[in-house]
């Protein structure tokens, strides 16, 4: 059983005995150990988002779909790649909007660990994928698990900003019903859609304006 070593353990523990999660565990064991395929992220990074951003520390949530599916990219945080790995196009557009919105100079790396440490839950809806096969682990149970995490965050009294980029992420809006929170929606930052509303959305400054004294330091340097 995986552990997060923080309050997510207790909050998500009821999921572990449910049939969907038991089936998901069996599927993951087969995929990681016996399928002959590379599975990303590496098993030790599977729950990095939950480990790095404690439930009570979450100030904002960025929702992705599933991990990067090429070797060396995914490390458990949506949109993020480790230092030394080429920055993916969607993340370059995120940096472009961050620079336009807040004037931050984009870093030369794509590692968003500092955001996670500063209260940004970088959560993919599906936490694993086969190498070279985007979407290959969808509808295996992950969506139920991560939706539960969103529901738990929705129960928080402390304000959270949910950044929903693209149609897939925007579909999660139905889970966010608490008026204490702010939902910001726009198109996905991919090169196919970024120019149709992501660039110019101002989500970073809007997020910080809403959070006030708890504003996020988006600087990655």
Helix/strand class: alpha/beta
In sequence order, what are the helices and strands, one letter per element?
HHEHEHHEEHEHEH
Annotation field: number of helices:
8
In whole angstroms, how far apart are the ends? 35 Å
Give the biggest beta sheet.
Answer: 4 strands, parallel
The spatial strand order of the largest sheet comes to 3-2-5-6
Q: What's the shape?
A: globular
Helical content, roughly?
A: 25-40%
Overall mean pLDDT score? 96
Number of strands: 6
Strand content: 5-15%
**If you compute it from the alpha carbons, what radius of gyration comes out, rounded to the nearest whole angstrom?**
17 Å
* Unreliable spans: none
Description:
- It is a single chain.
- This protein has 221 residues and is an alpha/beta fold.
- Helix content is 32%, strand content 11%.
- It contains eight helices and six strands; from the N terminus they run ααβαβααββαβαβα.
- Helix 7 (167-170) links the parallel strand 5 and strand 6 (182-186).
- The chain starts with 7 loop residues before the first helix and ends in a 10-residue tail after the last helix.
List the helices and strands and how they pair.
Blueprint: H1 8-12, H2 19-34, E1 39-40, H3 48-52, E2 60-64, H4 89-102, H5 113-117, E3 120-124, E4 129-130, H6 142-154, E5 161-165, H7 167-170, E6 182-186, H8 203-211
Parallel strand pairs: 2-3, 2-5, 5-6
Antiparallel strand pairs: 1-4
Considering the chains and any ligands shown, give keywords for the structure.
single chain, 221 residues, alpha/beta, two-stranded antiparallel sheet, 11% strand
